[in-house]
């Protein structure tokens, strides 16, 4: 399997793990390369073994491979330009938070825990030579209706997963420019509010 390369490694003030520095969110996915089943399983295992408040594990996933009706349904429920680029991803995953326990008690950290699990999923995917791109621009009600998602569950985001494509394959100038634009972050001293 050959994939496009595009080094967008983070510039850090001190070295960090190469998988973390090398992870980024592309919009160009190779439409011809499939993701082996074991790599999808590994990504989901990484999410499964994430930490969560009181080990409540409030993450649930709908996983759809390109070429399935489920994949097409998820694409239909992406907003705006997400629909344009994410259609090429080999796998789309709807990330869902269980907002209450079975007896209806609110799970205060459900979304926090789901986000953390999806972060681990992304890191595992990158470690396995894939790329992941999370999207919050989704049609929540449309996904609910299409997949019969229980009202106690909250679809939060969709992750596009697959092999990196080339920036030139993107359809619009805007997307091509964003794909190669410098990656930026606030400086550390702006993030650390206090450090004793
Ligand atoms: C919760 C969440 C929602 C996001 N929503 C979108 C989205 O709807 N469309 C999109 O193209 N990127 C989306 N992104 C990707 C971010 O724009 C991206 O992670 C950010 O610009 C940093 O870039 P990097 O991941 O390459 O470091 C989202 C990321 C997260 C974590």
From TrEMBL:
Family: Belongs to the nitroreductase family.
One annotated GO molecular function: oxidoreductase activity
InterPro entries: Nitroreductase, Nitroreductase-like
Protein name, entry field: Nitroreductase
Domain Nitroreductase: from-to ranges: 21-69
Record key words, sorted: Oxidoreductase
Taxonomic source organism: Mycetocola zhujimingii
Pfam families, alphabetized: Nitroreductase
Coiled-coil boundaries: none
């Amino acid at each position: 399997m050959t994939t496009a390369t595009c080094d967008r490694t983070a510039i850090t003030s001190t070295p960090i793990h190469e998988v973390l520095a090398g992870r980024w969110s592309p919009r160009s996915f190779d439409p011809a390369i499939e993701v082996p089943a074991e790599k999808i399983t590994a990504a989901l295992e990484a999410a499964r073994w994430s930490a969560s408040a009181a080990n409540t594990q409030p993450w649930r996933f709908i996983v759809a491979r390109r070429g399935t009706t489920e994949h097409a349904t998820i694409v239909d429920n992406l907003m705006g330009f997400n629909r344009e680029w994410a259609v090429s991803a080999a796998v789309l995953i709807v990330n869902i938070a269980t907002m209450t326990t079975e007896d209806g008690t609110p799970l205060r950290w459900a979304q926090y825990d789901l986000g953390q699990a999806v972060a681990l999923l992304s890191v595992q995917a990158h470690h396995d030579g894939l790329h992941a791109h999370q999207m919050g621009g989704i049609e929540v009600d449309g996904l609910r209706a299409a997949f019969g998602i229980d009202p106690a569950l909250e679809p939060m985001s969709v992750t596009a997963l697959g092999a990196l494509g080339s920036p030139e394959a993107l359809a619009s100038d805007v997307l091509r420019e964003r794909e190669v634009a410098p990656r930026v972050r606030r400086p550390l001293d702006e993030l650390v509010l206090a450090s004793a």
